[in-house]
Amino acid sequence: MFDTLGSRLTPVLRRLRRAPMFTVVALATLAAGVGANIAVFSVVEGVLLKPLPYPHPEQLVAVWHKAPGINLDKINMAPANYFIYREQSRVFQDIGVYNGDSVSVTGTGTPERVPALDVSDGLLPILDVPPMLGRWFSHDDDLPGHSPTVILGYAFWQRHYGGDRGVIGRMIEVDHKPREIVGVMPKQFRFLDWDDQDMFLPMQMDRGKTTLGQFNMEGIARLKPGVTLEQANADVARMIPTVWASFPPPRGFSLGLFYAAKFSPDILPLRQDVVGDVSRLLWVLMGGIGVVLLIACANVANLMLVRAEGRHMELAICSALGASRQRIVGDFLVESAVIGGTGSALGLAVAWGALHLLTAIAPQGLPRIHDIGIGLPVLGFSLGIAVLTSLLFGSIPALRYAGARMGTGLREGGRTLSQGRERHRTRNTLVVVQMSLAFVLLICSGLMLRTFRALTHESPGYNAAAPVQTFTVDISDTEFPNAVQAIHEEQAILEKIQAIPGVSSAAIGLAVPMDGNGWTDPVFAADRNYADGQLPPLRRFEFIGPGYLKTLGIPLIAGRDYTWADDYQKLPVAIVSENLAREMWGSPQQGLGKRIRVSSKDDWREIIGVAGTVHWDGMEKEAPAAAYWPLLMTNFESAPENVRRYVKFVIRSPQAGEDSFMREVRQAVWSVDANLPLAEVRTTQYYYSRSVARTSFLLAMLGTAGGMALLLGVVGLYGTIAYSASQRRREIGIRIALGAQRSNITGMFVRQGLLLAGIGVACGLVVALGATRLLTSLLFHVSPTDPLTYGVAVVGLVGAAALASYVPSRRTTAVNPVEALRAE
After folding, report:
1. Smaller CB count within 10 Å for the chain: N or C?
2. 430-459: b or e for each residue (b if 16 or more CB lie within 10 Å)?
3. pLDDT at 613
């Protein structure tokens, strides 16, 4: 067996060495196509296919809800739901809830703001990754009034305690409160796809004070063995009426509002919840890169057909001398296996570099990016790619020139016979396939280009280009228990920042556009009548101080901005967005003087201003109708007093984003409170760029794939026309000698190329109309059948085909007819 393989392999390697140009082009083409596919598959495998790194990950689910009555497809967990689900579920081993948080750590040198996670006592045990030191939270740790405890993340433990294993039982000051360290999580532990969490804190929810609502927590449960998602959803649906019956509605809201929302469960596999909607983007990208591989295989198949045609007489003689069909097919397949295997090995090396580039330019928020790498599944995929490519481009010449067909080679004439149409049919078919696939990719990349252009030309509603620095601070209720004192502290910090040279304006708010903060709640209007249980539409809530709109460049359409007197005097005032005013009262001016509130127990608040509409949730999403509330209020959301303590400072300065500027800002903050750490130090440009990063990433990837496809398709067409012209040199020489115009002969070959391109476009058009439907959710203000995109793609592909046909035909018709006839 090995002798037979060696006897076939040796002449194959010899032939490849004698044709270095063919070998280099074939290997380079395959390495590019295979490398791109392996790199993208590595991302797909790491993000979408690899199990979560917890024991029995198939049992882990995310607990969500839907509320079609208020047009919400996804709603978090609430404390009331958590208590009932944990106590009465028949399908969960346990259920836990968590919230992202950040906390101030003081008493250890420079004050520091670190990422943390607020968790119920059962959450970490559900993931089943035990602490490296100490223990998980107990049920007592999570009870209201219990002495505060904390579990440290591995990185924080190393950074602050140098890996001291005697840390358990020590106290650490968190948010100006001492907490006992009861555990340290292991180095390999990662909570879902969150950045490293430095601390885990027990929620300590009070069941006796719980009301309905407050859907602001995320839930994770572990199913009992053998339980399906359908059974889990049915069990949660059974418990929802029990939730409504077990807890009172919040002050100012009726129980009918919750029934009117028509809540239903939406239990998802936890891995699916972690990945989110990025799966569609990655599968689209995988499909696009897979098309490039098919085109690359078609190109190599065309090259091998040319080589086979050059060996036509040799193969015919071998067949006549008794070489079996299996022998000839075997030689072709061995040659294709060598090329495919070597090209795939080179592609693996290309993929290693491409993978580092992909992860470097991947959009912010790409989930599970730390799980991406070249492991056994990727190596198995690489082996499969090697076998597949070898069969794809090796079987075509093998079937075309093996066996009985070779017997005709001796009768077809010798070196003076022009190539017949039948020999071109396979090569032409491959070119049509290349053109049609390239056309599909050009359409997809064109649609993403149009989407990106629409996103960048859409006004975000604020001055995204302005140099605005942002950071957050948390004014502790331990140091400043009085709400007015907290506002005084925030204003004092603001005044110090405003005094920094170069600062043109500064203000305070809860969030900035596209940073992921903020929430939605209903807004009632005094001039509207609401039936019992009727819930008005949900609105975006933002909390802002004086000058916030000006600093961010949000236009004030009508009325006035807030003043500090509005806060300190706790005046019942409000500002709304332009789209909210137009929706409810027809125009911004008509909205002034109207009164709104959140619940029936709240004070009515007079609208004193109408601000421009802002894309708060990202450029690819519609701008929400928003209500802007003061930083300090009374009788808001059924609370006697409401103050914003965790606030974001926005500073407009030409030095925004510079380290030296932030040093001045920190000194200004610490001159007011030396124990106040700064967190989330970003510019508004960072958040804006992140909002369009996914679109620009997909545009770059599909654009690269489309460019590669067009190049390979044009190269394939060029090779077909060039080979056809070279085989007809004698015919061309005779035509020219008899007086034929060179332009007419050139036109003949150009028409041949355009015919192939036209057929490819027609076939690609049918495929594109179906394939682009997959892009619908990724497009912004662009139709999947956008006529401009299709028109430009047709013109571009046909133009490239015309050029690819003209160049080789022009070169052939430039020869001296006497020399052409003599050569034959």
Report:
1. N
2. bbbbbbbbbbbbbbbbbbbbbbbebbeeee
3. 96
